[in-house]
Amino acid sequence: MHNHPSRRAACTLVELLIVLALISVLAFGLLSAFANVREKARGTVCASNLKQIGMAALIYVEDSDGRFMPVAHDNSQSPTFWFKILQPYLKSEQVLKCPSDATTPVRSGYGTSSYGYNAHLGGVAFSELLPPGLDKKNKIMAQVQRPAATVMMTDSGSIALAGSAPETWPAMVPCPPSIGDAAIQNPTPPPIPPVIGYVSVGALPAPRARHQGKTNVLWVDGHVSSASIGSFYTAPGSIAPGETIPGYSPCLRPEKGCP
Q1: Would you say residue 181 lies in a domain?
Q2: Where are the beta strands (DSSP E) in 99-240?
Q3: Is the sign of the CA dihedral 240, 242, 246, 250 positive or negative?
């Protein structure tokens, strides 16, 4: 008894479709795996950048009688931000760019750093934007009670929105030079793309979850780690016991440090 030719052809077509489907699934899996590996590599480069920045910042502190560099020299219409102040020690602008940072600076003279400096260490560049509980003066190392548990810098920056997970907070464009408490929340939804001028007066930029839902953190003692923002940064709108400032985080405070 012979098989009918059309039946054999139909079986071959079904088999071909199954093979194509399997190839598609495998290709998708490989592409996803490749994307994860590539992002992990970018995160490693970013962590290395922060490590180099931290070494330069600590040398600056040593040369400045223990005082941290300011977020900015606020003495003109074109302030000099920390990444320019640090250049004599850093001698590289490449390390200021995170490979996962796809934003493009759009404000002339604002700079291109992908990282935000803790405003509780470096002060606030503009006195009119001084949030409650924040000193404009840059601190000295002796004021940091727990260097290994106090944030110096992170991936920057995003607009902290109440009720939203930190890994979904929209990016600021360009990246701001500092991070701090989310003292005042912004209305939702934000404009696309978000811009610096949209931030409410008194608010400070938040860290950016740029690496698979996490941010790289440079601590005051110079070590770097990867962390979820929620592990060290309180949600905007929340108030810690004994505090009056929404978005307060002990990890950003020189007198406190992460619990």
Answers
A1: yes
A2: 115-118, 151-158, 178-179, 206-207, 215-219, 224-227
A3: negative
3-state secondary structure of 218: strand
Inside any domain, residue 126:
yes
* Residue ranges making up the domain that contains 247: 5-252
What does the pLDDT look like over 152-206, one tens digit per residue?
Answer: 999 988 887 777 788 888 888 778 888 887 644 444 444 444 444 444 434 578 8
**What's the distance, CA 111 to chain centroid?**
16
E runs forming strands in 68-227: 72-73, 80-81, 115-118, 151-158, 178-179, 206-207, 215-219, 224-227
> What's at 127, amino acid-wise?
S
The total of structural domains in the chain comes to 1
Q: Residue with structure tokens 């970013």?
A: 46
Measured CA to CA, the distance from residue 81 to residue 129 in angstroms comes to 16
259 located within any domain: no
The pair of structure tokens assigned to 245 is: 């400032």
Q: Pick the closest to residue 206 from 227, 176, 241, 226 (CA basis).
A: 176
Assign 180 to helix, strand or coil: coil
Express each pLDDT in 23-71 by its tens digit.
Answer: 877 777 666 656 677 778 889 999 999 999 999 999 999 999 999 999 8
Residue 91 CA, chain-centre distance (Å), reads: 22
